[in-house]
Specification:
Elements: E1 4-9, H1 20-33, E2 37-40, H2 46-56, E3 60-65, H3 70-76, E4 86-89, H4 93-104, E5 107-111, H5 115-126, E6 131-134, H6 140-150, E7 162-165, H7 168-185
Parallel strand pairs: 1-2, 1-5, 2-3, 3-4, 5-6, 6-7
Helix pairs in contact: 1-2, 1-7, 4-5
């Protein structure tokens, strides 16, 4: 089964570390190299760099758009289409799209980012999804470790499922191990054969 990795990150890469776009491309390449599917919010900036990397490596890229249609995606939101195999148009604006994006993924990767990225991170955390945080990219990626240590969480959301790494290959490798561990712990087989 191909695992789905959602990349969450800043639409405006200007707020990120200077190397963040290249690291995002490498995340996309590594997802493709390891046979995964890259899923993004079909937006510009860091997610689009990840999509570019995955496509250049021959991978599959799915976009989940906040827009209701292709025309709305292009004309109203002014979002990219170039690196996507398909885009799902939700019509749910950004907050609804964020929910669908994280729910559709087997793991969520945080690269740089602002409040939208933080929103996707907290949804994934609440859902106990494996989360990879690409450190050294600025923004949300640098803040979540502190939030996790400072916020009292009696429910232990995401316990043992948040991975921090500066290395894209290491991050994807470790997330894959977590996903596979969860698959093995299932009492029933996944719906798609391996």
């Amino acid at each position: 089964m191909k695992y789905k990795f959602a990349v969450s990150g800043a639409a405006d890469e200007g707020m990120c570390d200077i190397d963040a776009p290249q690291k995002a491309e490498e995340i996309g390449r590594e997802v493709a190299r390891q046979g995964g599917i890259l899923v993004t919010g079909a937006t510009s900036g860091i997610p689009d760099f990840a999509a570019k990397g995955a496509k250049e490596e021959g991978g599959i890229v799915i976009g989940i758009s906040p827009a209701a249609s292709y025309q709305h995606h292009i004309k109203t939101y002014k979002l990219p289409t170039r690196y996507y195999d398909t885009i799902i148009f939700t019509g749910f604006d950004y907050s609804g799209r964020n929910l669908l994006l994280t729910k559709a993924a087997d793991a969520v990767i945080v690269i740089c980012g602002g409040f939208g990225t933080l929103n996707e991170f907290t949804i994934a955390l609440e859902d106990n999804k494996p989360i990879g945080v690409l450190t050294g990219t600025s923004g949300t990626a640098e803040e979540v470790r502190g939030l996790l240590s400072k916020i009292d969480d009696p429910h232990k959301h995401g316990s043992g499922k948040v991975i921090f790494s500066e290395d894209p290959k290491d991050l994807i490798n470790r997330l894959t191990v977590l996903i596979e561990k969860e698959q093995k712990e299932l009492k029933t087989s996944p719906p798609i054969g391996e």
